[in-house]
Amino acid sequence: MYRVLLVDDQELFRDIARDLLDASGVFRVVAEAIDGVDAATLYPVLSPDLVLMDVQTARTNGFDATREILEAYPEANVVLVSARPDPESERAAEELGALKLIAKRDLDAAELESLLKNGRAESRAVQPVSDTTSADRGVAAGHGRHADRLEQPGRRNVDGVFMATRQGAR
Predict the structure, then answer these.
(1) Cβ pair 158, 146 in contact under 8 A
(2) How much is the pTM?
(3) Minimum mean pLDDT among 86-90, 99-103, 164-168: which range?
(4) What CATH number has the domain bearing residue 95?
């Protein structure tokens, strides 16, 4: 099972994407973040197989966060998503080293699996994790307008980032 860090400031999209990916049986969302700053903080803690990141988030955009993650962790697999992708953004995503930029409305688990299996380069192909224990340590960042969630059961602090266990995140 591939482990996914889901990054989007819109809770509705995160809910839809999480349900779609989890239902595929191939992916498990192990963490959620509301922006690129949180994504860059969570990536080294979780080492997910895939970062699915919105291009427009608060504090920093998905392009800048992708650049930061890939400069520090060139083996990372990032797929950017956008409500309105355009050819210029697609070129920028490719130049950064993202696997692809896709429209949110076209999010498809089979396509994501294919991207991970084939990678942009052979050295970036990823094998799914069979250890569900590590996949079950899912977390969700809770900053800014989601700070009210910090009092829910299952909250913990990892490297200064408040997070929720998967059970507490829903």
Answers:
(1) no
(2) 0.73
(3) 164-168
(4) 3.40.50.2300
| Residue 28 maps to a domain | yes
Share of the chain above pLDDT 90, in %: 66
Residue 138 is part of which domain span? 2-165
Number of domains in the chain: 1
Mean pLDDT confidence for 105-132: 72
For residue 26, what pLDDT is reported? Answer: 97
The reply to whether 13 falls in a domain is yes
Distances (CA, A) of 38 to 23, 84, 161: 25, 23, 8
In a domain, 170, yes or no: no
Say what angle helices 62-72 and 36-46 make with each other, to 10 degrees. Answer: 30
Phi, psi dihedral angles at 7 (to 5 degrees): -125, 115
3-state secondary structure the chain: CEEEEEECCCHHHHHHHHHHHHHHCCEEEEEEECEHHHHHHHHHHHCCCEEEEECCCECCCHHHHHHHHHHHCCCCCEEEEECCCCHHHHHHHHHHCCCEEEEHHHCCHHHHHHHHHHCCCHHHCCCCCCCHHHHCCCEEECCHHHHHHHHCCCEEEECCEEEEEHHHHC
Quick check: is 87 in a domain?
yes
Structure tokens at 144: 């800014």
